[in-house]
TrEMBL record:
InterPro entries: Peptidase_S1_PA, Peptidase_S1_PA_chymotrypsin, Trypsin_dom. This is Peptidase S1 domain-containing protein. Residues 126-272 form the Peptidase S1 domain. SUPFAM superfamilies: Trypsin-like serine proteases. It comes from the Bacteria. GO terms for molecular function: serine-type endopeptidase activity. One of its GO terms (biological process) is proteolysis. It comes from Agromyces tardus.
Amino acid sequence: MREIDEVVARSREVEDEILSHPHVVRVGVGYRERAGAKTDELVIRVYLEKKLPLDEVPEELRIPTEWNGIPTDVIEASPATLTDVKDFKERPVPCGLEISLVTANTALYCGTSGCFVRKKGGTDVYLLTAAHVLKVPDHRMMDGIVYQARPFGWINRVATTTATHFGGTVDAGIAKMDSDVGHRNYVWKIGNLVGTGSPVLGGTVRKHGRTTDYTVGTVTAISVSMTLNGTEFRSLVEITPDPGYAKFADEGDSGSPLVNGGNEIVGIVMAKDDDFAYACRIDNVFQTLNLELADLPTQ
């Protein structure tokens, strides 16, 4: 673990320099891959939109074999996009199912319920999800009312948007639960949450989301930095889908709880590209928004 922390620290010292390099779309820390297989060598993973043979790349545009004393591994990957969000209603409201809001032009915008939280020292219960689900970039929301699953008059309303944070280490927001709507920190098809944890490089994680349902993946990079919708993010987690899953997350899965094998929530899913999914760490979310998990269900 000390070695990972050292590599992350050195990567952060030069991440701005790496991201300023032409054609680099993001950077993170992970294990080197050879012929599609993971090795045990820790590297700075540098992601390019197009990976060309070395002899076709001008010398001044080549990615150095190491940065700040840490070896690099160049990976071809498309730019990431925010995951946008079937129509299944459940009460009490659980984690990992569709939620929706209405924009000012009456369009429906959907995402996924993450988990249920309280402000530290408080008693009110809030639904936690991705910030861009509650406050859509470049759109004005109608009234901030959250529905599960979709609006049907006022019948399916469950919460009202309270606060969002989009940028830095966090894409997350909270909506205060209506007093007459039940909730439970149970992740659909996964089970009861038992607490919070930290993502582990090489560790197995799971999620349930509105679009791709239940998926399993592996944490293949940490301390990932990138720009989304013109906003800079850092300290994100990269997830690669395990064999048998075409994607770990897709449009509509934003806000999904990222859960480890011990049923601890370790992150909130927020973005994806053609190969990977990305999540913000739950510890950064809780620290930024001053939150803690609401009551946990008994097993």
